[in-house]
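The freezer alarm interrupted the setup, so I double-checked each line after restarting. Inputs confirmed:
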Amino acid sequence: RVLRVAILGLGSYGTRVADAMQSCKRAKLVGAISGTPAKLKEWQSKYNIPEKNCYNYDNFDQIKNNKDIDVVYVITPNALHKEHVIRVAKAGKHAICEKPLSVNAKDGQAMVDACKAANVKLLVGYRMHFEPKTLEVIRMRKDGEFGKVLFFQGLSGFTIGDPTQWRLNKQLAGGGAMMDIGIYSINGARYMIGEEPVWVTAQETKTNPEKFKEGVDETIQFQLGFPSGAVASCLSTYTMNNLDKFFLNGEKGFAEMQPSTGYGPIKGRTHKGELTQPHMTHQTIQMDEMAAIIFDNKKPVVPVDGEEGVRDLKIIDAIFLAAKTGKKVSLTV
Ligand code: NAD
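Predicted 3D structure, all chains:
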Protein backbone atom coordinates (compact mmCIF):
# COMPACT_ATOMS: atom_id res chain seq x y z
CA ARG A 1 0.00 0.00 0.00
CA VAL A 2 1.34 3.39 -1.02
CA LEU A 3 1.42 6.20 1.55
CA ARG A 4 -0.39 9.23 0.10
CA VAL A 5 1.22 12.38 1.49
CA ALA A 6 0.22 16.04 1.65
CA ILE A 7 2.94 18.54 2.52
CA LEU A 8 2.02 21.48 4.77
CA GLY A 9 4.50 24.37 4.35
CA LEU A 10 5.94 24.63 0.85
CA GLY A 11 9.26 26.26 1.77
CA SER A 12 12.80 25.17 1.03
CA TYR A 13 12.76 21.89 2.98
CA GLY A 14 9.21 21.09 1.86
CA THR A 15 10.44 21.37 -1.72
CA ARG A 16 13.42 19.11 -0.98
CA VAL A 17 11.10 16.46 0.46
CA ALA A 18 8.71 16.81 -2.51
CA ASP A 19 11.58 16.34 -4.97
CA ALA A 20 12.96 13.34 -3.05
CA MET A 21 9.51 11.72 -2.95
CA GLN A 22 9.45 11.55 -6.74
CA SER A 23 11.84 8.56 -6.39
CA CYS A 24 9.90 6.80 -3.60
CA LYS A 25 8.52 3.31 -4.05
CA ARG A 26 5.94 3.40 -1.27
CA ALA A 27 5.22 7.10 -0.69
CA LYS A 28 3.57 9.51 -3.10
CA LEU A 29 3.09 13.26 -2.90
CA VAL A 30 -0.60 13.85 -3.59
CA GLY A 31 -1.52 17.06 -1.72
CA ALA A 32 -0.29 20.48 -0.62
CA ILE A 33 -1.23 23.05 2.02
CA SER A 34 -0.01 26.63 1.72
CA GLY A 35 -1.02 30.21 2.47
CA THR A 36 0.23 31.29 -0.95
CA PRO A 37 -2.15 30.49 -3.86
CA ALA A 38 0.64 30.93 -6.43
CA LYS A 39 2.75 28.23 -4.70
CA LEU A 40 -0.19 25.83 -4.78
CA LYS A 41 -0.60 26.44 -8.53
CA GLU A 42 3.12 25.87 -9.05
CA TRP A 43 3.09 22.62 -7.06
CA GLN A 44 -0.03 21.40 -8.89
CA SER A 45 1.77 21.55 -12.21
CA LYS A 46 5.28 20.63 -11.00
CA TYR A 47 4.22 17.56 -8.98
CA ASN A 48 0.94 16.73 -10.70
CA ILE A 49 -1.18 17.44 -7.62
CA PRO A 50 -4.95 17.62 -8.17
CA GLU A 51 -6.70 20.85 -7.21
CA LYS A 52 -9.05 18.96 -4.86
CA ASN A 53 -6.02 17.98 -2.70
CA CYS A 54 -4.88 21.59 -2.20
CA TYR A 55 -5.72 23.54 0.93
CA ASN A 56 -4.79 26.74 2.73
CA TYR A 57 -4.21 27.41 6.45
CA ASP A 58 -7.86 28.44 6.93
CA ASN A 59 -9.53 25.42 5.38
CA PHE A 60 -7.13 22.49 5.80
CA ASP A 61 -9.22 20.99 8.63
CA GLN A 62 -11.49 19.82 5.80
CA ILE A 63 -8.81 17.35 4.85
CA LYS A 64 -10.73 15.02 7.15
CA ASN A 65 -13.23 14.49 4.31
CA ASN A 66 -10.50 13.69 1.79
CA LYS A 67 -10.16 9.92 1.36
CA ASP A 68 -7.16 10.30 -0.96
CA ILE A 69 -4.74 11.62 1.68
CA ASP A 70 -3.27 9.37 4.42
CA VAL A 71 -0.75 11.64 6.11
CA VAL A 72 0.17 15.32 6.38
CA TYR A 73 3.88 16.20 6.59
CA VAL A 74 4.26 19.45 8.60
CA ILE A 75 7.29 21.46 7.38
CA THR A 76 6.64 24.93 8.81
CA PRO A 77 8.68 27.03 11.30
CA ASN A 78 9.28 25.18 14.60
CA ALA A 79 6.83 27.09 16.79
CA LEU A 80 3.95 26.38 14.39
CA HIS A 81 4.42 22.59 14.45
CA LYS A 82 2.23 22.16 17.52
CA GLU A 83 -0.86 23.89 16.14
CA HIS A 84 -0.44 22.32 12.71
CA VAL A 85 0.08 18.75 13.97
CA ILE A 86 -2.83 18.97 16.41
CA ARG A 87 -5.12 20.18 13.62
CA VAL A 88 -3.95 17.32 11.39
CA ALA A 89 -4.64 14.82 14.19
CA LYS A 90 -8.10 16.27 14.77
CA ALA A 91 -8.77 15.84 11.05
CA GLY A 92 -8.06 12.12 11.57
CA LYS A 93 -4.87 12.02 9.47
CA HIS A 94 -1.48 10.64 10.46
CA ALA A 95 1.16 13.34 10.98
CA ILE A 96 4.83 13.53 10.11
CA CYS A 97 6.46 16.58 11.68
CA GLU A 98 9.82 18.15 11.00
CA LYS A 99 12.46 18.45 13.71
CA PRO A 100 12.41 19.89 16.29
CA LEU A 101 9.01 18.32 17.08
CA SER A 102 8.13 21.54 18.93
CA VAL A 103 9.86 24.27 20.92
CA ASN A 104 9.78 22.62 24.36
CA ALA A 105 9.01 19.20 25.83
CA LYS A 106 5.63 20.23 27.24
CA ASP A 107 4.31 21.30 23.84
CA GLY A 108 5.85 18.22 22.22
CA GLN A 109 4.06 16.01 24.74
CA ALA A 110 0.76 17.79 23.98
CA MET A 111 1.26 16.85 20.32
CA VAL A 112 1.95 13.21 21.24
CA ASP A 113 -1.17 13.17 23.43
CA ALA A 114 -3.36 14.76 20.72
CA CYS A 115 -2.26 12.17 18.15
CA LYS A 116 -2.87 9.34 20.61
CA ALA A 117 -6.34 10.68 21.42
CA ALA A 118 -7.15 10.90 17.70
CA ASN A 119 -5.74 7.41 17.12
CA VAL A 120 -3.30 8.60 14.46
CA LYS A 121 0.45 8.09 14.23
CA LEU A 122 2.95 10.88 14.82
CA LEU A 123 6.43 10.58 13.30
CA VAL A 124 9.33 13.04 13.33
CA GLY A 125 11.40 13.74 10.21
CA TYR A 126 14.63 12.31 11.65
CA ARG A 127 16.13 11.40 8.28
CA MET A 128 19.47 10.22 9.76
CA HIS A 129 17.66 7.31 11.43
CA PHE A 130 17.47 5.65 8.01
CA GLU A 131 20.88 6.64 6.62
CA PRO A 132 22.93 3.51 5.69
CA LYS A 133 26.37 4.54 7.08
CA THR A 134 24.78 5.77 10.30
CA LEU A 135 22.92 2.48 10.64
CA GLU A 136 26.16 0.54 10.10
CA VAL A 137 27.86 2.40 12.97
CA ILE A 138 24.85 1.70 15.17
CA ARG A 139 24.99 -2.00 14.18
CA MET A 140 28.70 -2.15 15.04
CA ARG A 141 28.06 -0.54 18.42
CA LYS A 142 25.21 -2.95 19.17
CA ASP A 143 27.40 -5.91 18.15
CA GLY A 144 30.08 -4.74 20.56
CA GLU A 145 32.64 -3.91 17.87
CA PHE A 146 33.67 -0.70 19.65
CA GLY A 147 33.74 -2.43 23.03
CA LYS A 148 32.47 -0.38 25.93
CA VAL A 149 31.48 3.03 24.55
CA LEU A 150 33.22 5.85 26.40
CA PHE A 151 32.91 9.11 24.50
CA PHE A 152 30.97 10.91 21.76
CA GLN A 153 31.77 14.25 20.20
CA GLY A 154 29.19 16.06 18.07
CA LEU A 155 29.86 19.31 16.23
CA SER A 156 26.83 20.86 14.54
CA GLY A 157 26.76 24.30 13.01
CA PHE A 158 26.70 26.65 10.08
CA THR A 159 26.90 30.38 9.56
CA ILE A 160 23.41 31.77 9.34
CA GLY A 161 22.73 34.64 6.91
CA ASP A 162 19.72 36.98 6.67
CA PRO A 163 19.02 38.40 10.16
CA THR A 164 15.31 38.83 9.34
CA GLN A 165 14.58 35.12 8.72
CA TRP A 166 12.25 33.15 11.03
CA ARG A 167 15.17 31.03 12.30
CA LEU A 168 16.39 34.11 14.22
CA ASN A 169 12.95 35.02 15.55
CA LYS A 170 12.33 33.46 18.97
CA GLN A 171 8.54 33.52 18.42
CA LEU A 172 8.79 31.29 15.34
CA ALA A 173 12.00 29.36 15.98
CA GLY A 174 11.68 28.75 19.74
CA GLY A 175 15.42 29.35 20.13
CA GLY A 176 18.42 29.60 17.86
CA ALA A 177 21.06 27.18 16.64
CA MET A 178 20.18 24.50 19.21
CA MET A 179 16.62 23.96 17.93
CA ASP A 180 17.78 24.00 14.34
CA ILE A 181 21.16 22.30 14.11
CA GLY A 182 22.41 21.50 17.64
CA ILE A 183 19.56 18.99 17.86
CA TYR A 184 21.57 16.77 15.44
CA SER A 185 24.34 16.42 18.03
CA ILE A 186 21.82 15.68 20.79
CA ASN A 187 19.97 13.10 18.73
CA GLY A 188 23.29 11.74 17.41
CA ALA A 189 24.76 11.36 20.90
CA ARG A 190 21.72 9.26 21.82
CA TYR A 191 21.73 6.96 18.79
CA MET A 192 25.52 6.62 18.61
CA ILE A 193 25.96 5.83 22.33
CA GLY A 194 22.65 3.96 22.54
CA GLU A 195 21.63 5.33 25.94
CA GLU A 196 19.57 8.19 27.35
CA PRO A 197 21.55 10.95 29.10
CA VAL A 198 21.09 11.46 32.85
CA TRP A 199 22.69 14.89 33.22
CA VAL A 200 23.55 17.97 31.20
CA THR A 201 25.94 20.89 31.59
CA ALA A 202 26.10 23.78 29.10
CA GLN A 203 27.90 27.04 28.37
CA GLU A 204 26.57 29.74 26.05
CA THR A 205 28.59 32.35 24.18
CA LYS A 206 27.25 35.21 22.08
CA THR A 207 29.43 37.34 19.82
CA ASN A 208 26.56 39.25 18.19
CA PRO A 209 23.66 40.09 20.55
CA GLU A 210 22.14 42.35 17.88
CA LYS A 211 21.67 39.44 15.46
CA PHE A 212 21.08 36.77 18.13
CA LYS A 213 18.52 38.40 20.40
CA GLU A 214 17.30 37.28 23.83
CA GLY A 215 16.28 33.62 23.67
CA VAL A 216 18.02 33.01 20.33
CA ASP A 217 21.19 31.04 21.05
CA GLU A 218 24.20 31.61 18.81
CA THR A 219 26.71 29.13 20.25
CA ILE A 220 26.26 26.60 23.04
CA GLN A 221 28.76 23.97 24.13
CA PHE A 222 27.16 21.18 26.11
CA GLN A 223 28.07 17.94 27.80
CA LEU A 224 25.87 14.91 28.42
CA GLY A 225 26.44 12.12 30.94
CA PHE A 226 25.06 8.61 30.33
CA PRO A 227 24.18 5.83 32.79
CA SER A 228 27.12 3.62 31.70
CA GLY A 229 29.54 6.44 32.48
CA ALA A 230 29.97 7.41 28.81
CA VAL A 231 30.08 11.16 28.19
CA ALA A 232 29.36 13.40 25.21
CA SER A 233 30.84 16.79 24.41
CA CYS A 234 29.01 18.82 21.77
CA LEU A 235 28.91 22.17 20.05
CA SER A 236 25.90 23.89 18.50
CA THR A 237 26.48 27.11 16.58
CA TYR A 238 25.17 29.58 14.03
CA THR A 239 28.56 31.26 13.51
CA MET A 240 31.02 28.61 12.39
CA ASN A 241 30.77 27.28 8.91
CA ASN A 242 30.27 23.66 7.84
CA LEU A 243 30.60 22.15 11.28
CA ASP A 244 29.21 18.65 10.85
CA LYS A 245 31.23 15.98 12.59
CA PHE A 246 30.59 12.97 14.84
CA PHE A 247 33.22 10.95 16.69
CA LEU A 248 32.49 7.88 18.80
CA ASN A 249 35.13 6.24 20.93
CA GLY A 250 35.05 2.90 22.70
CA GLU A 251 37.52 0.60 24.43
CA LYS A 252 38.06 -1.42 21.24
CA GLY A 253 37.57 1.09 18.44
CA PHE A 254 36.10 4.25 17.02
CA ALA A 255 33.82 5.74 14.36
CA GLU A 256 34.33 9.11 12.77
CA MET A 257 31.86 10.75 10.39
CA GLN A 258 32.29 14.02 8.52
CA PRO A 259 29.92 15.14 7.14
CA SER A 260 27.76 13.31 9.65
CA THR A 261 24.26 14.73 9.21
CA GLY A 262 24.29 16.90 6.07
CA TYR A 263 22.17 15.90 3.08
CA GLY A 264 25.02 13.71 1.98
CA PRO A 265 26.82 11.78 0.93
CA ILE A 266 27.83 11.04 4.51
CA LYS A 267 31.49 10.09 4.81
CA GLY A 268 33.10 8.14 7.58
CA ARG A 269 35.46 5.49 8.81
CA THR A 270 35.88 3.24 11.78
CA HIS A 271 38.90 1.41 13.23
CA LYS A 272 38.00 -1.31 10.67
CA GLY A 273 38.18 1.00 7.64
CA GLU A 274 36.04 3.23 5.42
CA LEU A 275 32.27 3.09 5.65
CA THR A 276 31.22 2.04 2.15
CA GLN A 277 27.43 1.81 2.32
CA PRO A 278 25.99 3.57 -0.76
CA HIS A 279 24.51 7.05 -0.54
CA MET A 280 20.77 7.27 -1.03
CA THR A 281 18.77 10.49 -0.89
CA HIS A 282 17.86 10.64 2.79
CA GLN A 283 14.31 11.87 2.35
CA THR A 284 13.53 9.18 -0.26
CA ILE A 285 14.49 6.32 2.09
CA GLN A 286 12.85 8.11 5.01
CA MET A 287 9.47 8.38 3.29
CA ASP A 288 9.53 4.77 2.02
CA GLU A 289 10.41 3.56 5.52
CA MET A 290 7.75 5.78 7.08
CA ALA A 291 5.15 4.14 4.80
CA ALA A 292 6.17 0.78 6.30
CA ILE A 293 6.07 2.20 9.85
CA ILE A 294 2.59 3.65 9.34
CA PHE A 295 0.99 0.78 7.41
CA ASP A 296 2.93 -2.31 8.58
CA ASN A 297 3.91 -1.18 12.10
CA LYS A 298 7.55 -1.71 11.08
CA LYS A 299 9.93 -0.90 13.93
CA PRO A 300 12.84 1.28 12.77
CA VAL A 301 16.31 0.63 14.25
CA VAL A 302 16.14 4.06 15.91
CA PRO A 303 12.63 5.30 16.72
CA VAL A 304 11.10 8.23 14.84
CA ASP A 305 7.88 8.50 16.84
CA GLY A 306 6.62 11.55 18.71
CA GLU A 307 8.10 10.29 21.99
CA GLU A 308 11.55 10.33 20.35
CA GLY A 309 10.96 13.98 19.46
CA VAL A 310 9.98 14.74 23.07
CA ARG A 311 13.17 13.06 24.38
CA ASP A 312 15.31 15.51 22.40
CA LEU A 313 13.17 18.45 23.55
CA LYS A 314 13.59 17.45 27.22
CA ILE A 315 17.34 17.57 26.68
CA ILE A 316 17.10 20.95 24.91
CA ASP A 317 15.01 22.32 27.84
CA ALA A 318 17.72 21.07 30.22
CA ILE A 319 20.55 22.53 28.11
CA PHE A 320 18.89 25.96 28.12
CA LEU A 321 18.44 25.74 31.89
CA ALA A 322 22.02 24.59 32.43
CA ALA A 323 23.38 27.41 30.23
CA LYS A 324 21.30 29.98 32.10
CA THR A 325 22.07 28.80 35.64
CA GLY A 326 25.59 27.45 35.11
CA LYS A 327 24.47 24.35 37.02
CA LYS A 328 24.49 20.66 36.16
CA VAL A 329 20.89 19.68 35.33
CA SER A 330 19.63 16.19 36.11
CA LEU A 331 17.48 14.45 33.52
CA THR A 332 16.36 11.60 35.74
CA VAL A 333 13.59 13.47 37.56
P1 NAD B 1 11.36 27.82 5.04
O1 NAD B 1 11.33 29.20 5.58
O2 NAD B 1 12.08 27.58 3.75
O3 NAD B 1 9.87 27.28 4.85
C1 NAD B 1 8.89 27.44 5.84
C2 NAD B 1 7.52 27.42 5.18
O4 NAD B 1 6.52 27.67 6.17
C3 NAD B 1 7.38 28.50 4.11
O5 NAD B 1 6.77 27.96 2.95
C4 NAD B 1 6.46 29.53 4.77
O6 NAD B 1 5.64 30.20 3.83
C5 NAD B 1 5.61 28.64 5.68
N1 NAD B 1 4.99 29.37 6.77
C6 NAD B 1 3.73 29.18 7.20
N2 NAD B 1 3.41 30.03 8.18
C7 NAD B 1 4.49 30.81 8.39
C8 NAD B 1 4.76 31.89 9.27
N3 NAD B 1 3.85 32.33 10.14
N4 NAD B 1 5.99 32.44 9.22
C9 NAD B 1 6.91 32.00 8.37
N5 NAD B 1 6.71 30.97 7.49
C10 NAD B 1 5.50 30.40 7.49
O7 NAD B 1 11.95 26.90 6.19
P2 NAD B 1 12.49 25.41 6.03
O8 NAD B 1 13.96 25.44 5.92
O9 NAD B 1 11.72 24.71 4.98
O10 NAD B 1 12.16 24.80 7.49
C11 NAD B 1 10.87 24.34 7.84
C12 NAD B 1 10.98 23.25 8.92
O11 NAD B 1 11.72 22.17 8.39
C13 NAD B 1 11.69 23.68 10.19
O12 NAD B 1 11.06 23.11 11.30
C14 NAD B 1 13.09 23.11 10.05
O13 NAD B 1 13.70 22.80 11.29
C15 NAD B 1 12.81 21.86 9.25
N6 NAD B 1 13.96 21.45 8.44
C16 NAD B 1 14.41 20.18 8.54
C17 NAD B 1 15.49 19.78 7.79
C18 NAD B 1 15.95 18.34 7.85
O14 NAD B 1 17.00 18.05 7.30
N7 NAD B 1 15.21 17.45 8.48
C19 NAD B 1 16.14 20.66 6.95
C20 NAD B 1 15.65 21.96 6.86
C21 NAD B 1 14.57 22.35 7.61
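Quick read of the result. The first helix runs from residue 12 to 21.
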